[in-house]
């Protein structure tokens, strides 16, 4: 027999919970949901629950690119306090937990950065374990237990999402398996609710069954994909059947269904091409470029500061290790020679750092990369990581390129000392680096401080350059070398399955399995690079160079052109930041709120003049750099110059340069002198008006005084008359005193009145 001992009966919640799970999201915390209304009725700040799950809300207003919570996040204690305040109310803990789950699920649709979303979920689970005994009865306690497990399943779901961006299908399979086990715990907890009519039991039991099927299908698909890429495709077809079956679950919401559909579509393409010619990259090099520019120091000064270290043979200690070398010149090949002796040559300095070792969190090896930081005379500075590999499958190439991303899943990033020992990266007060992007960021800041303490930098868009030296084709994935034929032409390379990975940009985040299998529309391929069969593909953040019929040293020369072009992004970032700073500074100094302060006006005029001189110097440097880069004599070789122009065009160099030059033109044409003159005229007009007002006041004061004197002169005449009357004994003494007092008082009143009337005219 069902029982309902609570004021909020099952009928008022079942429909709301079902809708919540069917959408995996709720429009807003102030929406008209029954759960939200009931929470408000018991005094819960529903808007705070919404904010607790927002990844982009906090005192700093920015979400860290972290999957793990940062210490001291106030969302945890706030959530725990909210739970403690309502735990003794019937069904309140379960209501609060499921509403928090809905808001966190909604937040997950917008970001890969899970650190802040996890905080309130963990806080609820931990706080519930401490206060569950305060629940009013066994039903409420069991419902709270089930909802706490529900929140734990969401955390493991986030771990699975992060594992997709780890570059390791085995890690995805393990994470999905763990998530499925957590959903099994949820099923057990939901069935343990002693009230068969409980809305939480009615909603959570089918949801647990559905999610068990979802995560099992994902785990099987990830393992099957991994086996297939290793040359063992037997499990792929059953895994596809499992994905199709999971998609038909009637309790599956449309968000999870879309994920299953994405997994299936990419793996169907993998299955369809099992018998097709597959591409293997027999030898390739991957270079990660993290550009930056310095905002408050000229490029020549930055180069000179680092060059001075080289001349003193100093090897600075950075991030816990000592630099291997400081080079006073960049290693430049003949491609950078110029026929224009008067032009500024391209060059710079570099700091060679120890190698970088990348590991999965369990310590398994990923790759070891060389590392150096380059400062150039043009200002296109960048951190550069490089590694070479052999016999790479398309999936391995895709995973290697994705390491560029700032949303790569957390891995271990360590230095390798010259004696081969791994050393942790020193990271100061911030969190340790969890990806290649983090180490690049730390290096940019550390080396900028070498130039000058506190130097501000502007970061450009990261870019990966993949250079293919040798490639081959074989039937199916993981074909042995004896069954592969060399690729000799670009058409052969592009026709092989797996070549599409070389034409795609690095994704922002990874949302599916084997996301390289589907071809993208209209890849950007440069024509006429060297030979007819050469392939160069350029995207927003990746460049592929496959000059199959070209000697190694010429391929490297072309690679240096590609690196130069993609590093210009940091230079443009610094230029735009400098222009924005100038605009803000000038606007602040031209503000007229203190126009009455003549001394401040003069000081602002002097500061504006200095700022305009700085802007003219900056404009001269920008124009010189742009003119040099686009000069037909920048490179001595006409063919290399044409190649450089192709790369510049593909990277939208002209558009970026046009934006900078247009902003410069607008700022240089800004009529600052006229605006200052107008301020000075306004200030002078106000000063003159004030002087006229002061002169008018002085004249009125004089007129009033003269009028008062005239009145008092009359008074003295009257007093004289009284005195004559007294001497003639026409009046006696008391009468004379009275008359004199009356005359004096009347004179005072009349004089004051006349004075005020005269001044007020």
Can you walk through the features of this model?
The chain has 761 residues and is of the alpha+beta class. It is 54% helix and 13% strand. It is built from 21 helices and 14 strands. It has helices spanning 11-23, 34-41, 46-52, 75-86, 92-107, 115-131, 138-163, 169-191, 199-229, 236-247, 254-272, 299-311, 394-402, 436-451, 490-495, 552-589, 598-630, 638-650, 653-668, 672-727, 733-759; strands at residues 277-294, 317-318, 321-322, 325-327, 348-359, 365-376, 381-392, 412-416, 422-424, 457-459, 463-475, 485-486, 535-538, 542-546. The strands form two sheets. Strands 1, 4, 5, 6, 7, 8, 9, 10, 11, 12, 13 and 14 form a twelve-stranded mixed beta sheet that branches. A hairpin with a 4-residue loop joins β6 and β7. α6 packs antiparallel against α7. The longest helix is centred in the last third of the chain and has 56 residues, at 672-727. It starts with 10 loop residues before the first helix and ends with a helix. The relative contact order is 0.07. Residues 1-5 have low confidence and may be disordered.
Write a concise keyword list for the protein shown above.
761 residues; alpha+beta; two-stranded antiparallel ribbon; disordered N terminus
Give a short summary of the structure.
This protein is α+β, with helices and mostly antiparallel strands and 761 residues long.
Strand runs, count:
14
Overall mean confidence score, pLDDT: 85
Unreliable residue runs: 1-5
- Cα(first) to Cα(last) distance is 98 Å
Helix/strand/pairing category: alpha+beta
Overall 3D shape: flat
Q: Helicity, in percent?
A: 40-55%
Transmembrane segments: 701-719, 739-758
Keywords: Membrane, Transmembrane, Transmembrane helix
